[in-house]
Amino acid sequence: MRITPLDIRKRVFSKGFRGYSPEEVDEFMHTIADEYNRIYTEFKSLKTDNVKFEEQVKEFKEMEKSLKQALLSAQKAGGELRNNAEREAQIIIKEAELNAEKIVESAKDEAKELLKHIKILKQKKKMIRLDLRSLLESYIESLDLREEDDRKIVKNKKPLLERKKDESKSDTA
Q1: How would residue 20 be classed by pLDDT, with cut points 50, 70 and 90?
Q2: What SS3 class is residue 164?
Q3: From CA 168, how far away is CA 145, in angstroms rounded?
Q4: Element (H or E) spanning 118, and its range?
Q5: What residue spans define the domains of the chain?
Q6: Cα distance between residue 146 and residue 8, in whole Å
Q7: How far is CA 132 from CA 39, 125, 126, 140, in A?
Q8: Could you tell me the pTM of the whole model?
Q9: Mean pLDDT on 54-67
Q10: Which side of the chain, N or C, has fewer Cβ within a 10 Å radius?
Q11: Sign of CA dihedral 122, 123, 128, 131
């Protein structure tokens, strides 16, 4: 049975012969009622607070559950993003390696072509030198022959007296 402060205040005791002093009993009952009222009020306040706190705990648990789910989702998404990024990085690296190999092969092929072209140009240079040397030598030979012919012509055109002088000089010598 629940007792309220009002029950304590209204409680009436039967009077007996030489029983307790009614004033002391009343005073004590009022003190008990006041203390009980204070405790009862505090209890109701604590009970109300307890209900609020239980609601808050329930809300916090729901928030915690949501946060855990969000964290798990974020971790999963982060893991997937990391895996996707790693896959993409591997693909990019492979493509770069393939492109680098193509570039290197292309450069090697181009270098080979350039070496062939250089070799051909060197051969042409050698041939041009030989042709030029041969041409120059033939011009020099031709010039030498003309010079000799010119000397013969000049020699033949000298007056007869001069030729005889030249001949006599060569005989005496």
Answers
A1: confident
A2: helix
A3: 27
A4: helix 22-157
A5: 20-156
A6: 162
A7: 130, 10, 10, 12
A8: 0.41
A9: 95
A10: N
A11: positive
